[in-house]
Design goal:
The chain is mainly beta and 185 residues long. It has a single domain (2-178), classed as Immunoglobulin-like. Helix content is 0%, strand content 48%. It contains no helices and 15 strands. The chain has a five-stranded antiparallel sheet with strand order 1-4-12-9-10, with no helix packed on it. Strands 7, 8, 11, 13 and 14 form a five-stranded antiparallel sheet that branches. Strands 2-3-15 form a three-stranded mixed sheet, with no helix packed on it. Strand 9 (86-89) and strand 10 form a beta hairpin. 17% of the residues are buried.
């Protein structure tokens, strides 16, 4: 599996660290491909009609047939398993519903390098209007320990029994989430 993502909007780099402000929106694009012996199999398989031949080996169940693939996002405090809440806002500008981003169906074969990629084919999944619920501790104060967050992109496979199991993931570089922009004050 070749799982990739790109975070757009909201982040900037300072002193080699990625930083964003808690109130700023960001978005994530996710894709994955099936690779065997360095060759991308996604181009030669007709999805979603050809998922009959996709199996994954699970430690507790052995070889299991995959019916569909899904992706989801999480966030943790870097170096721990403690979750950090990410919320997704509605497209409206007024204060609308905030929800945890759910998992979405995805098919292999996406390409972020192409300018004209299609979200309708489900080869690239887009999460828009995301925010961290809380800022990291410290945020530049020299007297305390700087905390970092990491975004986790999860790839799930739906088994024949309907259960979704995580079959892969990638983790972002450590991120600093500041409370408010200095220009706000």
């Amino acid at each position: 599996l070749d799982l990739k993502s790109r975070i757009d909007k909201g982040f900037f780099s300072a002193d080699g660290v990625w930083i964003c402000y808690r109130r700023n929106y960001f978005q994530i694009k996710i894709l994955f491909n099936l690779i065997e012996d360095g060759k991308d199999l996604s181009e030669s398989i007709n999805f979603p009609n050809s998922l009959d031949d996709i199996y994954v080996k699970l430690p507790d169940k052995g070889m299991c047939k995959i019916l569909n693939f899904y992706v989801g996002i999480d966030s943790i405090i870097t170096g721990s398993k403690d979750k950090v809440e990410i919320v997704q806002h509605t497209a409206k500008r007024e204060k609308g519903e905030q929800k945890k981003p759910g998992i979405k169906l995805i098919f292999p074969g996406g390409d972020l390098s192409s300018y004209n990629y299609s979200l309708e084919q489900n080869t690239i999944v887009l999460y828009e209007r995301l925010q961290f619920r809380k800022a990291t501790c410290n945020n530049g104060k020299r007297t305390t320990f700087q905390q970092y967050y990491s975004i986790i992109i999860n790839l799930y496979g739906m088994l024949v029994d309907g259960k979704k199991v995580r079959i892969g993931y990638i983790e972002s570089s450590p991120l600093v989430v500041r409370g408010r922009s200095p220009g706000h004050y």
